[in-house]
Amino acid sequence: MGIGTSNFVIRWINFLTMLLSIAVIIFGIWMSTHHDSCRKSLTLPVLGLGGFIFIISIVGFMGALKNNSILLWIYLVMLCIILVAILVFTVLAFIITNNGSGHNAPGLRYKEYQLQDYSSWFLKQLNNTKNWKRLKSCLVKSEDCNNLSKKYKTLKQYKSAKLSPIEAGCCKPPSECGYPAVSASYFDLSFHPVSSSKDCKLYKNSRAIKCYNCDSCKAGVAQYMKTEWRVVAIFNVILFVVLSIIYFVGCCARRNVGGNQSKA
Questions:
Q1: Residue 68 phi, psi dihedral angles, 5° rounding
Q2: Residue 72, Cα to own-chain centre: how many angstroms?
């Protein structure tokens, strides 16, 4: 393979990498438009990753266009760093999200969640007073709980609904409390709770309180974060495979360029 052919291959590889970076950025934008401000923890890292891949693609493309070996080496080193970072993050993401699952409650179509089921990392983040104060403030401002009475006009509709983890954990008392539901957003708290769980005492019908101080709410947020992290981890696996192929081909082409230059 001559220098011209090798550079042509590298240019096309970097063009494909640019397209891939645009796909990563689009994925990050999709995440930002489908989540409110409370749940955008991974949006900026994904957008940053897409932007970084785009920049190193330009470096590699210019290196091949100008036949500049220094730029090509910088491109390969930076791409290698990205591959290592993606690999480390993906492994950690799968480890962190390995624990935690919902529990079925009698007569309910949705699952309820318990905080102790999740990984120690989630527990540390959600039990941090500063972190939870910020998240709770954001949840209060969101429409997750406020819209329940609009979504489910009758008690029958509400009882047969499939609530999201945050709706099930933050907008109502745990079913183990046994509070009778008057509507989708109001429970009869005069009823003596069946369970001794502290969440039963923390729940209030007030729109500003609900169960935002409950462990069940933290568990609902943990389940949401787990799902989000899993989606990003799976996306990263695909990205890692594609970038690894690009890196391997790029290394072969770069070796040919170096070999042909040394012969010359």
A1: -100, 110
A2: 33
What is the CA 195 to chain-centroid distance, rounded?
A: 33
State the distance between the two ends of the chain, measured CA to CA, in whole angstroms: 14
CA distance 229 to 207: 29
**H-helix segments, 115-214:** 120-127, 129-141, 148-151, 155-159, 165-170, 198-202
DSSP 41: T
Closest to 141 measured CA to CA, from 32, 37, 219: 37
CA gyration radius, the chain: 25
Reported as a single tens digit per residue, the pLDDT across 95-144 is 988 887 888 887 788 899 999 999 998 899 899 998 898 888 888 887 77
pLDDT, tens digit (0-9, with 9 covering 90-100), for 150-195: 888 888 888 888 899 999 999 999 999 999 999 998 999 998 888 8
Q: Which residues of 165-176 are buried (b: 16+ CB within 10 A; e: fewer)?
A: bbbbbbbbbbbb
Across 13-137, where does the E strand assignment appear? 103-104, 111-112
Q: How much is the pTM?
A: 0.80
Q: Is the dihedral of CA 150, 134, 231, 245 positive or negative?
A: positive
